[in-house]
Amino acid sequence: MIEALQFEFMRNAVFAGLLASILCGIIGSFVVVNRLIFLAGGIAHAAYGGIGIAFFFGIPYIYGTIGVSLAAAFIMTAVTIKAKNRQDTFIGVLWAVGMAMGVILIDLTPGYHVDLMSYLFGSILAVPSADIRWMAGLGAVTLVLTILFYRDILAISYDAEFARLRGVPVNLLYFIYIALVAVSIVFIIRVVGLILVIALMTIPPYIAEKYVRSLMMMMVLSVLLSVVFNMTGLWVSYHMDLTSGATIIMVAATGFFISLGVDQVISFSRKRKTQRSSRKMLKTKKDAL
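Request: output the structure for the sequence above.
Response:
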């Protein structure tokens, strides 16, 4: 794939993959640790309404999608905080309404039929330079906020009530990070698509969580895994002429199942070791008697 980097669209694809990896690693870790996967999925599908609004009114895709995603994210977050027992209902409704609104507005857009495949399954090879700059800025903001508020984020992630008692502005930080989730999803849709965005945001953190002991290391390992999945998927899709977004997710899914297999092998090995130790102790006791 080295020779392909002479083309601007391939360089943009690589930069987009690397920046998406940073966002997925950091924001995805927050989503996984706080069990917000369903909420993130609701935001992703509600974002489709923003795509419809952007094309219907002729405004830039980014502005329409970010606006709708943030609105949906704030509503879902407010419901989660105020009425946690009803959050799944509200998220499901906004999920469906966003998708339906997007489809209807695209149908009503006069004289234009948008390529839905590029939004449903991603088009990393078509990411423009402007989006790269937006992703770089968002990545920088995410890194700075994570470093500044790491201890507070850690406290919120593992015991929100205790964090509130310590004076941590739980609700404010929660809204800020959900806003980052929403905006990150908008840009990652460009890379892997609306349908697959949650997989890329959750698979690397899920794998990383099992092998580290701190949230910071989980974020770092998630970023590294995302880089491997994105670059490998991009390389495979380029050489086999496959849809890039779907290929990246299949590579990530392969990593997911390999990690499950490794877990089973480790668990079986520990079980056998425990059994051998138990038998050895029993034999020692018998010999002593």
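The chain has one domain: 2-288.
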